[in-house]
Amino acid sequence: MSLSVLIYGSIELTAHLRSVVPVDLSYVLIGLFTIGLPLRKFNGTYWAATLLWLLVSAFSLAFQFTGNHFHTVISTAFLLILISVSAIWAASEADDFSIAIRKKLDGPLPGGASSLVASGLIGAWSSVVVALAVTGTGRIWHGDESSIAHASLVAAACFTAASILAAIAVGFIYGTGRIRRDVPAIKYPHRPQLKEWRVSLSGPTPRPTHNVIDRIAEVAILTVFRTSETVVKASVTLSRLMVNFLLISMYILVRSITAVVNWVVMVLVLTFRVIAAAVAAAGRVIYRAFVSAYSGVVRVTVNVGFPVIALAVSSLLATGAAEETRQYIVVGSPRSLLATCALVIIALLLVITSWMVMASQSWERSLESAQHSASRTAPYALLFVAIGGWLLGLPGTILGYGLIHVGWLTLVSTGLIVAAVLLRPVLNRIGSQA
Fold first, then answer.
1. Average pLDDT over the chain, rounded to whole?
2. Is 0.70 surpassed by the pTM of this model?
């Protein structure tokens, strides 16, 4: 009853003051009941939704008395706060989702790596959204917010680059330690068998000496033999040393070349394996981060972004409906009445959809609750409109006192009530026969 008195009084004040404020406050109160009653059992959500509705309604009402600069500043601040909160919330959602999908991917990767990269991707997404949103509000309200848009795009580029670099770094760190170390190699040559050449010369057969001449000849022959033997042995030893030296040199050279070739092959193979493992690990990190970021963004957009934006749009529509209501009360234009009805219906649908999303329960249960509330509220609302139209319009219509007259809204709502009363027995009879 008190709510009805307040609404009737606000309509009367709107007519006398020719101001949208009283009827706009009535719409705010109706929206508060529409969003607050279904969420009364959700304590935290209830207070957040009601405070948000009052805040956006206050700003929407202030828009009627302020200029483009105020509109640009408030809209930009609202979007910055909304996107910042959404980004933080999405980062926490991405962290939880990253833990949930960790077992679905191959390869041991740290859980914080994908969460960090996902946070960077969410930061880049948020910066791009900020740039687009700020540019849009600047064009709508004819403000100049290009510096914020440029800074947001630079921040988006930095977030993206940091995310990619972090994924690459994680890939190299966790890819390097998990590669196979076995590398195909050329076999080393066997150590050569050194030559052991030996020479033994048989000396001259000794003969009996009969005189000095025989003795001199024997000594000369022996001397020549010893000298020849020494020369031959020295030649053989020198040849052996030279051949062994060549063999060892060739062995060392071939072994060195083999070692260098094996080292080059090992470096190339391990480098390729490190790069491949790093790319694979970085790809897994980026994929997991992208999936986590996408999941977090979608959840936050549905659970946070949509209800907040829907309530903000509903408050703007309610303010527009208040202006159209003032026009209808003062002028009685059918166009204003149709515009009021359309704006109020759209605003109510947005408010109802917002509390259904914020309730975090099954859509079937929320739809059932909304249908139940609508079926019980619609008849009372129609009766409320008809009674209020006659109470507020009769003094002005019959006695000429007041600015409010009985108009189309009162007549149509009364006609619907009379038709319902008259057709009720017929409809009940048809229903019983069916």
1. 75
2. no
Burial of 314 (0-12, 13-18, 19+ CB in 10 A): buried
| 220-226, Cβ contacts within 8 angstroms, sequence gap of 24 or more | 225/201
Task: Give 21 or 179, the one with higher predicted confidence.
Answer: 21
Distances (CA, A) of 352 to 111, 132, 377: 39, 28, 13
The model's pLDDT over 157-190, given as tens digits with 9 standing for 90+, comes to 888 888 788 877 877 777 666 667 777 777 877 8
Q: What is the 3-state secondary structure (H, E, C) of 128-165?
A: HHHHHHHHHHHHHHCCCCHHHHHHHHHHHHHHHHHHHH
Query: CB-based contacts of 120: which residues, under 8 Å, 6+ apart?
Result: 159, 160, 162, 163, 166, 289
> Residue 177 in 3-state DSSP?
coil
Assign 68 to helix, strand or coil: helix
Q: Residue for token digits 């040393």? A: 241
Give the Cα separation of 413 and 430 in Å (integer).
25
User: What is the Cα–Cα distance from 59 to 51, expressed in whole angstroms?
Assistant: 12
Task: State the alpha helices, DSSP H only, in 301-396.
Answer: 306-331, 334-358, 363-394
Q: What pLDDT is stored for residue 346 in this prediction?
A: 92
Rounded CA-CA distance 25/14 in Å is 11
Report the phi/psi class of residue 400: left, alpha or beta, with left for phi > 0 and alpha for psi in -120 to 50: left
**What element of type H or E holds 210?**
none
